[in-house]
Amino acid sequence: TPGVSGDDIRLGAARLMLAERLPDAALTVLKQLADVTAAKPDVVLLRATAEARAGDPAVALTLLQSQPDNDAAHRIAADALERMGRVADAARRLDGAKATADQLRRAGLLFKASAWQDAATAYAAVLHAPDLAGDARNIAAERYAAALALAGGPPPATAPQLPASPARLLAVLPGHAAPVAPNGDAMSSVPAALERAHGSAARVAAER
Question: Using CA atoms, how far apart are residues 37 and 96, in angstroms rounded to an integer?
């Protein structure tokens, strides 16, 4: 039942739902808050998050106008703009991001927007991050190679170390040699690398 009584419970439930990737359920709960609770800055940010992910992204952007211009607001705006189909604008909201997760998100948005040279530059930068490892690093490396191949432009001044497969993809392109990370997969072939790179680009294009 709407009202101030019980708003603390409703807010706790909404936060949990967002953490569990249930933004539509969180939005339903947030709409039940009393006006005095809903007007609090941290609750406005919570509502903007839910709107950006599952509600009306335009409402999310409107709500953000009253919020501080910080990393949290930039992430929410990127979510909203991506849902509105403004993928390049979404990436721009993450310009200058310091956190590796935000840099990776920005690179992915540029890739989705088919801004190949910018995507390659963004992936090259994030591949230097020491906390990017495992599958996330391998996917970023393959997308870097695919973006650079599709851009047809020069590689970044400081090329990142790559696993064997993406490195071999670049090695067959003029002027695109890249250092290979130790312990790379020696069995990876150039055709397989090309197929994976093409598949990565096709998957992202299908999402648009």
Answer: 33
Alpha-helical segments (H) within the chain: 7-19, 23-30, 35-38, 41-54, 57-64, 71-83, 87-92, 100-112, 116-126, 134-151, 164-171, 190-207
Interior angle at CA 117, CA 113 and CA 118, nearest 5:
65
Neighbours of 166 (CB within 10 A): 29
Residue 189 C-beta-side C-alpha neighbours within 13 Å: 3
Whether pLDDT at 60 is above 90: yes
| Tens-digit pLDDT profile for residues 102-146 | 999 999 999 999 999 999 999 999 999 999 999 999 899 989 988
| SS3 at position 193 | helix
Q: What is the CA radius of gyration of the chain?
A: 20
Identity at 72, one-letter amino acid code: A
Percent of the chain surpassing pLDDT 90: 63
The CA-to-CA distance between both ends of the chain, in Å, stands at: 39
